[in-house]
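Tip: read the tokens left to right.
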């Protein structure tokens, strides 16, 4: 039987599935910073995410119950439609029967907390069902009107979930992420600058080479015109010889060397 760091509970709808998949990868691939590692562990561990819609039944399957029993945390992806899922409701209730409430986390994917959080996440009830307390679960908010904005929010808000799983302050991960991002931007700017400088250098060298070749071609042409002028002079073609000689020399009309 595997041990899981977290069990992700969600409705199998496009938005919830997309966030659940990204969160699954984020948790399993995240490398814990040295400063907040416990027992030297670099990774958080495995995440259970049921990829199939559960069949209609009155009870959770034994596999789901086993996975919940062996999960340290429950993460619920919440939207206003979450309350319509009997399976998410049962997974939350079953987990709370066997685990501490502090080990339940939420991700608000759409709507508001008031309309998206299941009652089990915000209410503490007694044995007779009486309301004892209203609470606010630790939650990440990725509500946005476009995928681009949601992805941008996810990069930051997922750190709240990671911090809870690690057992460290959110700010410790956020500040580290900001420093890492600044270093990446600085490195990217450095690479771009190096490429630009190399490109400019290449253009300068190329222009110098072109200018050198042009100067050499003009010199050769001047030598040819000078030879032609001498040949014409020897033949008594004095006017033609003067014209050829003048063409071989620099003037206002050309920039011969």
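Filled-in amino acids:
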């Amino acid at each position: 039987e595997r041990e899981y760091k977290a069990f992700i509970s969600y409705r199998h709808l496009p938005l919830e599935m997309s966030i659940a998949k990204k969160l699954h990868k984020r948790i399993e691939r995240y490398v814990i910073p040295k400063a907040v590692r416990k027992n030297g562990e670099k990774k958080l561990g495995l995440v259970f995410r049921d990829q199939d819609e559960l069949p209609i039944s009155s009870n959770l399957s034994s596999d789901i119950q086993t996975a919940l029993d062996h999960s340290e945390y429950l993460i619920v992806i919440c939207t206003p439609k979450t309350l319509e899922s009997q399976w998410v409701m049962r997974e939350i209730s079953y987990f709370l029967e066997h685990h501490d409430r502090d080990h339940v986390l939420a991700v608000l994917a759409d709507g508001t907390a008031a309309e998206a959080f299941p009652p089990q996440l915000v209410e503490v009830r007694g044995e007779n069902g009486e309301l004892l307390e209203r609470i606010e679960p630790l939650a990440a908010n990725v509500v946005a009107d476009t995928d681009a904005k949601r992805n941008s929010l996810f990069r930051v808000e997922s750190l709240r979930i990671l911090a809870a799983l690690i057992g460290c302050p959110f700010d410790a991960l956020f500040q580290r992420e900001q420093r890492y991002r600044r270093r990446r931007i600085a490195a990217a700017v450095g690479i771009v600058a190096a490429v630009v400088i190399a490109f400019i250098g290449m253009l300068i060298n190329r222009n110098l080479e072109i200018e050198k070749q042009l100067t050499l071609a003009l010199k050769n042409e001047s030598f040819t015109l000078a030879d032609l002028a001498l040949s014409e002079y020897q033949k008594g073609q004095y006017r033609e010889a003067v014209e050829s000689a003048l063409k071989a020399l620099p003037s206002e009309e050309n920039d011969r060397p």
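The first helix runs from residue 14 to 29. The helical segments are 14-29, 62-69, 86-98, 113-116, 119-122, 147-166, 170-234, 238-247.
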